[in-house]
Write a structure and sequence with these properties.
Mean pLDDT of chain A: 85
Strand content of chain B: 5-15%
Strand content of chain A: over 45%
Oligomer: heterodimer
Number of strands of chain A: 10
Number of strands of chain B: 8
Radius of gyration of chain B: 27 Å
Distance between the termini of chain A: 23 Å
Chain lengths: 149, 353
């Protein structure tokens, strides 16, 4: 990854990508290029067979340039406060998952696509290996508003 | 119930450690505060910042943060609290349309996420993490980059736990889903290795992903659960802060391990060493070169710091004199004796005040 983080006159730029989801459908609805530092990349070593949520920037050859692990932002379940002070948080299944989420990545010229990886988040499928649930062409219009700041 | 139900008043930077282009920018947004209540929001925002920066490892990472407060005045106070979930039935006109009882879950407090994104994009385009603080004393909240929280007692720790997920990719370390004794499907984890840094299915000392933090003397696995149909009831057999492989994590009673007995990501205790390491790693690009200088308090300047130092030194001097010079203590005792005798009518040995 050739991130352009530097001090002084030239600064790092990041892409903020805004997604909307409903059920299993995820849409890229907006993106902005912003002068800010993105979170550092996690290891680009293979994660085949692992379970969790992460996103990758990929070049035109499909090679990973940047990867970031995070909590699944598609809320099939949510964390709520319990009544037990010894176990203060617990989870509840969400009946109709719907909402928006935001991903931040480096804004780099070589990046062609952004791929989302996720394991099924329904409770009865916890632990299944992650797979690509969406791949978005960053060279095309987001289908929503696109801004540069 | 929408943006027509209030006004974006403006933004105040409450922690300033340099250009927003170089720091991690945390944004706190007001919801359900009327114009006259925005001073309360300012107090709540400061309360959160104080808690965050007194929570390790954030205490040593303060200078990598900027914190902004977005004052949004709503026409009415609080959040919708539908009766369908046992709430009060209140329906209030607020800017981001905060409501409890989403998906039938009373404590799931959500706002109009896209509306929050639009406001924050306009106010602080370089934001990394947003926390919407909802002016309600009823328990509620939700995680995500656009986290929400009410201001019920202890809300600050819940919000820090949620930041652990959204900003640092940390997993839940608790060993149940709906509660111990409630679940019937969370007995044993048999799935793939979790990608998150703070839970694992691998308790092998040689291959566990946080192996560098495990002492040679720590047994592996460190604890095992004797009854996988229930949460492990045993207390911590080792000193607090020992890193190992404690069975019960990632919503399962058995087969999944956490690094320490307690953690912010398990039960809102201080972050375990593995989580602290992950947070430091994520925050490293935002640290100024040379690391954090001495903590900077909002609103302080050189003159204020100088006088505070002088006053503190004088106070210390007075305390040392009182403690170590017997004659002063003796003098005080004599004065007190004479005053009390004077009051009791014995005028021979008294001092009149």
């Amino acid at each position: 990854m050739s991130s352009k983080r530097e001090t002084g006159a030239r600064r790092t730029r990041s892409l903020r990508l805004i997604f909307a989801y409903e059920g299993g459908s995820v849409r890229l609805v907006g993106r902005q290029s912003v002068e800010m530092i993105p979170p550092p990349s996690d290891s680009l070593a293979g994660r085949e067979g692992e379970t969790g949520f992460w996103y990758e920037l990929r070049d035109s050859q499909g090679r990973a340039l940047y990867r970031r692990l995070m909590q699944n932002p598609i809320q099939y379940s949510t964390e709520v406060l319990s009544n037990d002070p010894m176990r203060p948080v617990e989870r509840r299944d969400v009946q109709e998952p719907r909402g928006v989420f935001v991903l931040i990545s480096p804004d780099i010229e070589e990046a062609q696509t952004l791929a989302l990886f996720s394991a099924p988040s329904e409770r009865n499928e916890l632990g299944r290996s992650s797979r690509i649930i969406g791949e978005f062409d960053l060279k095309q219009d987001a289908g929503g508003k696109e801004e540069t700041r | 119930m929408s943006a027509s139900d209030g006004t974006v008043v403006g933004t105040t930077q409450i922690v300033n450690n340099g250009s927003a282009a170089e720091r991690f920018n945390l944004v706190l947004v007001a919801e359900g505060y009327r114009q006259s209540e925005l001073s309360q929001f300012a107090a709540h925002a400061q309360q959160f910042v104080d808690r965050l920066f007194s929570t390790p490892p954030f205490d040593e990472l303060q200078c990598s943060f900027n914190v902004f407060r977005v004052d949004v005045a709503s026409n009415e106070s609080g959040a919708d609290d539908p009766a369908a979930c046992g709430g009060t039935g209140a329906s209030v006109a607020t800017y981001f349309d905060a409501s409890f009882c989403n998906g039938g879950i009373q404590r799931l407090l959500l706002v109009d996420g896209m509306s929050v994104i639009n406001v924050v994009n306009a106010q602080i385009p370089q934001w990394h993490q947003v926390l919407v603080i909802v002016n309600s004393p009823t328990w509620g909240g939700a995680g995500g980059q656009i986290g929400t929280t009410s201001v019920a007692g202890g809300w600050e720790n819940i919000a820090i736990h949620e930041m652990g997920h959204s900003a640092y990719g940390l997993a839940d370390e608790y060993e149940y889903w709906s509660g111990c004794g409630v679940d019937t499907t969370q007995n044993s984890y048999t799935g793939a290795e979790p990608a998150q840094p703070n839970i694992t299915a691998d308790s092998n000392r040689a291959t566990i992903k946080w192996g560098s933090l495990v002492a040679a003397s720590t047994p592996m696995p460190t604890t095992t659960n004797a009854d996988c149909s229930f949460c492990d009831p045993q207390p911590n057999p080792l000193p607090t802060g020992t890193t190992g492989a404690f069975e019960g994590a990632g919503y399962f009673h058995c087969g999944c391990f956490r690094p320490e007995f307690d953690c912010m990501m398990r039960n809102l205790s201080p972050f375990c060493a593995v989580c602290r390491q992950r947070i430091r790693q994520v925050m490293s690009p935002y640290m100024p070169s040379g690391g954090c200088p001495a903590p900077v308090f909002p609103g302080s300047n050189f003159i204020e710091c100088f006088f505070r130092t002088i006053v503190n030194l004088l106070l210390i001097l007075v305390l040392v004199l009182l403690a170590w010079i017997p004659s002063i203590r003796c003098l005080i005792k004599q004065l007190w004796f004479r005053v009390t005798h004077c009051r009791s009518g014995n005028t021979n040995r008294c001092i009149r005040l």
